[in-house]
Specification:
The strands form two sheets. Strands 1, 2, 5, 6, 7, 8, 9, 10, 11, 12, 13, 14 and 15 form a 13-stranded antiparallel β-sheet that branches. A two-stranded antiparallel sheet has the order 3-4. The protein has one domain (2-191): Hcp1-like (Pnp Oxidase, Chain A), CATH 2.30.110.20. It has one helix and 15 strands. By secondary structure, it is mainly beta. It has one helix at residues 98-107, and strands spanning 2-12, 24-30, 44-46, 49-51, 57-59, 61-72, 78-79, 84-85, 88-93, 110-120, 127-145, 153-159, 162-170, 176-185, 190-191. Residues 1-21 form the signal peptide. Keywords: Signal.
């Protein structure tokens, strides 16, 4: 009997359940692509230090999901399957990062690391709650839309070879007390918990 296990991560900067307690801002960093983050984001609290988000790209939403297929056998044991990484989809304003992202898509060039930082920013000091890294990320689609707003939005999808999630746990005072890292490479089908090292 074949069973599917699926994990979906969807995050809107304003409409997430997390935002009921605090506003969450999302920023993306891609090597060689300049962003538009506010200059004030240069002293954001992270685990055992701070992070400078100058040059990051502000993002409205991110969504991605994974699927794992196990083959069940009699007796209740399962055989190991291989995880499927479905595309990462982001929404952001059309800005100075749009051109380089399009050029990368047109040329078929991948980015070694695409990093996201999720920040609790509504009250008190700004604190990193999650960092997400996608390795060997390739732009697959770009779609632009406008609805008589002040800005033009675009949706961009990426394929990627590895995923690393860093989660900071906060105490009652909003201070980071611990950190957990999980990750996987679908290229090697092995654990990958080093967000700063590109795939070889």
């Amino acid at each position: 009997m074949k069973t599917w296990f699926r994990f979906l991560f969807a995050f809107l900067a304003i409409c997430s359940p997390l935002a009921l307690k605090a506003q969450i801002d999302i920023y993306m960093k891609i090597t060689t692509v300049t962003g538009n983050s506010p200059s004030k984001l240069n002293n954001v609290q992270d685990y055992k230090g701070t992070v400078d988000l100058t040059g990051y790209i502000q993002v409205s939403s991110i969504q991605f999901d994974f699927a794992q297929t196990n083959n069940s056998v009699s007796g209740g044991s399962t055989g190991a399957g291989k995880i499927t990484f479905n595309p990462l989809v982001i929404t952001k304003q059309v800005n100075e990062a749009s051109g380089p992202l399009f050029q990368a898509m047109a040329s078929g060039s991948s980015f070694p690391l695409v990093d996201f930082v999720l920040i609790k920013s509504s009250q008190g000091p700004k604190v990193v709650i999650n960092k997400i890294t996608f390795k060997q990320a390739l732009v697959k689609t770009m779609a632009v839309s406008s609805a008589n707003c002040d800005s033009v939005a675009e949706s961009i999808s990426f394929d990627y070879g590895a995923y690393v999630l860093t989660t900071n746990s906060l105490d009652d005072n909003g201070t980071i007390k611990s950190q957990n890292i999980a990750g996987w490479s679908r290229l090697t089908n092995t654990k990958d918990i080093n967000p700063s090292v590109p795939l070889k």
